[in-house]
Design a protein that fits this description.
Blueprint: H1 3-14, H2 22-40, H3 46-77, H4 82-93, H5 96-107, H6 111-138, H7 143-153, H8 157-167, H9 169-183, H10 186-197, H11 207-221, H12 223-249, H13 253-257, H14 261-283
Helix pairs in contact: 1-12, 2-11, 2-12, 3-4, 3-9, 3-14, 4-5, 4-6, 4-14, 5-6, 5-10, 6-8, 6-14, 7-8, 7-9, 7-14, 8-9, 8-12, 11-12
Protein name: Membrane protein
Keywords: Cell membrane, Membrane, Transmembrane, Transmembrane helix
Membrane topology: Multi-pass membrane protein
């Protein structure tokens, strides 16, 4: 099953029979997502990973800093509470739900603020899964350009890899590498968040990034691992498809209704800003 079909099937379940493990689905889907991303590392060579990371670092730095600043300013303009605006900005700037989950305890965000922020990110992720591959083909982007665009302009890793996989294998490799390089910003953003909101919360370290690097090194320098890398990567792609189904199944109607206009407008504004800016930078 394709990634978009899995997501739509999950949405159908959410709005008909309901999700039987709704209160635990986010934890399950996030663990499966991270495990699948580690599996994708067995399909990437160290040389290509270093090249992709080096070429995309300037865009990553500028996009993260610019999105966070724009989020603060636009949040005040929309008269949105500071913590919700910051969570939406962090999710857009870094890596969607993972960034929100890491930053929320640091700034001591309330449950509703976290739910609203996740709702905004998941809604836009769903849209990106369909829109980005269409636009990539429409504007004849190269594999590298599309992979970099996905990695920087789409929020969650699940939608990044889902959209890139629909485009090409090379786009998926570039997108996965750059996305995880972007995810490293979780730690500095969380530290800045604690300073900005004057809170003593703890910063969660994204363990799966280290395991992804180990997987890339094993695939590149241990010949026996290369024999099984193809099967591991295929299993990882299946895991990502299942992740998108779980995410879709968790988007219940009550959850979507509580998002509200102002947070959604902020999310759309930030998303359009980062998407258009990065697209121009990659194609000029």
């Amino acid at each position: 099953m394709s990634a978009p079909a899995a997501l739509l099937l999950g949405l159908a379940v959410a709005h008909t029979t309901g999700h039987p493990w709704l209160h635990r689905q986010y934890r399950y889907s996030q663990f499966l997502l991270k495990a699948s991303v580690v599996g994708l590392g067995f399909g990437i060579s160290a040389g290509n990973a270093i090249k992709a990371g080096r070429e995309g670092i300037l865009l990553t730095v500028c996009s993260v800093a610019g999105t966070l600043l724009l989020g603060l300013l636009a949040g005040k303009w929309l008269k949105l509470d500071g913590k919700t605006a910051w969570l939406v900005a962090a999710g857009t700037a870094v890596c969607g739900g993972s960034a929100i989950a890491a930053v929320a305890p640091v700034i001591q965000a309330e449950e509703k603020q976290v739910s609203v922020s996740l709702g905004v990110v998941f809604l836009l992720n769903t849209l990106a899964l369909f829109v980005f591959p269409f636009l990539g083909h429409l504007f004849h982007l190269s594999d590298g350009q599309f992979g970099a665009w996905c990695a920087i302009a789409i929020h969650d890793t699940s939608s990044v890899t889902g959209a890139a996989a629909r485009f090409s294998g090379q786009a998926l490799e570039t997108a996965t590498t750059l996305k995880l390089a972007r995810a490293l910003w979780i730690m500095p953003v969380a530290l800045v968040s604690g300073w900005l909101f004057r809170t003593p919360g703890r910063v969660a370290i994204p363990w799966f990034i280290g395991l992804f690097i180990v997987a890339v090194l094993l695939r590149s320098y241990v010949p026996v691992v290369q024999q099984y890398s193809g099967g591991i990567v295929q299993l990882a792609k299946t895991g990502l498809t299942l992740t998108l189904f779980l995410i879709g199944a968790g988007l219940s109607l009550p959850q979507l209704k509580q998002v509200g206009i102002a947070p959604l407008l902020l999310g759309v504004l930030l998303w359009l800003g980062i998407s258009v800016t990065v697209f121009i930078a990659l194609t000029r």
